[in-house]
Amino acid sequence: MKHLFDFRKIALFVFGLVLFSGCDEKLDEMNINPYGIEPSNANPNLLMPTVLSSAAQSYVNLGYNDLAGAVQHTQKNGWYSGHNFYDWTNRNWTGWYDILRTNELLIRRGEELDNEFFQGIGLTMKSFAFGNIADLWGDAPYTNALKGDQGGEELQYPAFDSQEVIYDGIIADLQEAVQVLGSASGEGVTSGNDLYYNGDTQSWQRFANSLLLRYYMRLSEKKPDVARAGVEAIYSSGIYIQDPSQDATLDYTGGANDQWLSRHVRLDPDDFQRYQACQTFIDQLTGTNDPRLTVWFDSVRVQWVADESLATATEDFIRANGEPLSVETYPYDDFVELYADVKFTRRYNPNMADYNDALYVGLPPAITVPESYNGNPSPGQGTQNQHVSQLAHIYSTEGAPGDILKARIISAAEVSFIFAEAALKGWNVGDAETHYNMAIEQSLETWNSADEYNSFISQPEISFNNSLEQILEQKWVASWTAAAESYADYRRTGLPDLEAGPLSPQPEVALRFQYGSDEYNNNSASIQAALDGLEVTPFSGNFGADSQWSKPWLYQGTNVPF
Questions:
Q1: 473 in a domain, yes or no?
Q2: Which residue segment(s) compose the domain that 83 sits in?
Q3: Distance CA 158, CA 164 (A)
Q4: In terms of pTM, does the model score above 0.85?
Q5: From the first residue on, what is the mean pLDDT of each consecutive set of 10 residues in the chain (562 residues)?
Q6: Which of 42, 85, 95, 427 is the most buried (most CB within 10 A)?
């Protein structure tokens, strides 16, 4: 038995050596992903939808989320510190650079295949992504970014370029994109994979020129001669977005690939109930009888009614068409089902309590305990507040393909507002009033309110008064769900005149995102120059240079917004 046991041990040992030897020969093969694609063989048609969907997704996320809070379109009643009072500490830009890496491969493959279409849209999307990075953070890796695969520590951990260098690069790339797209064809392009324009080169050329307009206007105070010449040349060319049907948008198609929209536009029930109208925005919309109000927001579920004869501060029940009910509130779904036929109210004594009894009520910006505002009978983070306006019901339900909810990157209305501002500066782009009126009409058309244009534009508050304040106020309104642009306008001009709320750490609206922890942990040597280039303001607080209230290059040497 002992000899048999020893023989078995020896046999197992030899068998193991054979297996190990065989595995060793196959190690290289085992470390190769059989399903992977070599970058040199990548099909740009398959890269394109990833770039386009991710870019639109990231932009609409900014536009309805924290930047919507910053420009006071909305406020949140749950998990609200970032949204309501600029708690943006250590904000990473990883998502934008992920988009840029895929897009860089798209450009490279376009060059290798001598395909001008892919080169042109790659340059356009590169400019769009880097534009958002420069807008929101300031200095950032640019010249040596996206080159990590070429080796060298200086490429693995690239130095930051100045915000000015990035903007100059964006303008140069967009100018090249316009030229390239002017001679591009759709040959070799799978049109359905172009999620914005279905492979139409003229549409992409208009889009690239419209982005150029956006960034020329960014530089209109720092480099006015460059900005004026650029805007005038584009206006003269006629190649820019001129109609809402030409907007750069990502449509909701209803397919499985649109699941992001459930969170970013069609919000889930918890998200939906967190988002409330901001009172600043409600005051603007109700004060001008804006027809977009009812498209974007719902009225309060239960309206307060003043009654000085009431013996208590408030009733502890609600009324349906004036008749008392035995409940103080209903679940959200029950309100929706009854809303069309029933008017819900609740009485209060104005001598004992102070409530907002308007039909549309918003949360004031950055207030203490927003979940309890205006007498909410069921306060709690992210719960329904029956006495404050939420988003309209279209944002809480699955919509049909092709409806009005889209991820909008740039619009005809924005372009027309840019020309209106340029005309007001005396640039040769036509008449300011014509562009202003056109911008409003285009925005109303976008939101299914075109029939209201004549009555809306004839109001004294809306009829053109030849002021920059009015142009940028209406541009701010039209930037709903694209708040990144009105946020850029506010920081550039101080308009509209927004006031920070009481829980804001500083009495001014924040200017920028702080650099993320990834940069501090992995690229600390490069980040120092960027910090040195920021202007510390009286509102930078204890953060030092890397504060939400420090000024990057674009706003240095100006007195705006403070």
A1: yes
A2: 49-255+405-493
A3: 17
A4: yes
A5: 38 39 41 57 95 95 95 96 94 97 97 98 98 98 91 84 98 98 96 97 98 98 98 98 97 59 68 93 98 97 98 97 94 77 95 98 97 94 91 77 85 99 98 98 98 98 98 98 98 97 96 96 92 97 95 96 96
A6: 85
